[in-house]
Design a protein that fits this description.
The protein is 24% helix and 26% strand. It has two domains: 212 residues, Alpha-Beta Complex (Quinone Oxidoreductase, Chain A, domain 1), CATH 3.90.180; 135 residues, Rossmann fold (3-Layer(aba) Sandwich), CATH 3.40.50.720. It contains eleven helices and 17 strands. The two termini are 26 Å apart. By secondary structure, it is of the alpha/beta class.
């Protein structure tokens, strides 16, 4: 039988999130039911709730950085047992048949992956509801093991912020002997610093203003460059093998391209949209020095598990501020002001208040 659960939902783009009761489906053969313990709060949650990208269907129960405990499993489940601590990230299904899915790139499913929330279940067409709730049901393939020893609340943002930055670091070969820079020190940027440092790269933070040095060094940066300082930017011209750009709005990437070494890559993970007008990209430096401008979107399930295991080995979790679900609307306002270091995480137990 379906299970009635409590959560928080937005019912319109201009409305606050409010308490919301809804049903989780009964278990299919390969399903795992999870009691949610913690759920991270991502900027994507705000974009979906506010319909910034268009096409949203309400109500929306956000949340795709989920850590919880298994309570039931379907008869075909082999990887998980009751009581196990697990995670669910941005996806809960894909077609499982296309070339992307066959190559563990479910995030690029050619038939459209199913989002953890604000998506449609590919079997019954129902809306998917996310982690701002008591329970979630997901197919075994899209459930992840959380390594023992990690702080569970701090581990929740790894399911989005962690994999979003780990994937391009791994893809473009961050490691010993490589020089990696990170643009922006927020939820994504602080994870990129931690991960690149653990990969033994030499790590630099690009910041538009002074005052980030203490945090940057604590998080793993070796250097900080003020990107508005022309002399500092000239000093690092042609330096970096890889730049992870986490800035979530349209901006001029040309000054950062100039700091790439020959055949270096700048990877956009924060901004979705055109770079045009004053932000248009000059291709000449890329053509004449073999530089790459790329994009990256989370990771597949195998890579996400690899990232979690890496974080378990190195003791890496997100820097968080814990909140009760009743404070979610205030948290959204603070996120607009960048007033969080560096990720809000909801204590799901507060749904019982």
């Amino acid at each position: 039988m379906p299970t009635t659960v409590q959560g928080y939902a937005a019912h319109a783009s201009n409305a606050d999130l409010v308490p919301f009761s809804f049903e989780r489906r009964d278990l299919r053969r390969d399903d795992v039911e999870i009691d949610i313990l913690f759920c991270g709060v991502c900027h994507s949650d705000i974009h979906h709730v506010r319909n910034d990208w268009g096409g949203e269907t309400y109500p929306i129960v956000p949340g795709h950085e989920i850590v919880g405990r298994v309570t039931r499993v379907g008869p075909g489940v082999t990887r998980f047992v009751e009581g196990q601590v697990v995670g669910v990230g941005c996806l809960v299904d894909s077609c499982r048949e296309c070339s992307s899915c066959h190559h563990d790139l479910e995030q690029y499913c050619l038939n459209g992956s199913t989002l953890t929330y604000a998506g449609k279940d590919r079997h019954d067409g129902s809306l998917t509801f996310g982690g701002y709730s008591e329970k979630i049901v997901a197919a075994e393939r899209f459930v992840l093991s959380i390594p023992a020893g990690l702080d569970l609340a701090g581990a929740a943002p790894l399911l989005c912020a962690g994999i979003t930055t780990y994937s391009p670091l791994k893809r473009f070969g961050a490691g010993a002997g490589k020089k990696v820079a990170v643009v922006g020190l927020g939820g994504l940027g602080h994870m990129a610093l931690k991960l690149a440092h653990a990969m033994e790269a030499e790590v630099t933070l690009f910041s538009r203003s002074p005052g980030k040095e203490e945090d940057a060094f604590r998080l793993g940066a070796d250097k900080v460059v003020i990107s508005k300082d022309e002399e500092q930017m000239k000093a690092v011209a042609g330096t970096f093998d890889l730049i992870i750009d986490t800035v979530p709005y349209a901006h001029d990437v040309n000054p950062y391209v100039a700091t790439l070494a020959v055949e270096g890559a700048l990877v956009l993970v924060g901004y979705l949209g055109p770079l045009e007008g004053d932000n248009a990209v000059n291709s000449a430096p890329m053509v004449f020095r073999g530089k790459t401008l790329a994009g990256s979107l989370i990771g597949g399930l195998a890579e996400t598990q690899e990232m979690l295991d890496f974080c378990g080995q190195h003791g890496i979790v997100s820097d968080i501020e814990m909140i009760d679900i009743q404070d979610i609307n205030a948290a959204y306002e603070r996120m607009h002001r960048s007033d969080v270091k560096y990720r809000f995480v909801i204590d799901a137990a507060s749904l019982g208040k």
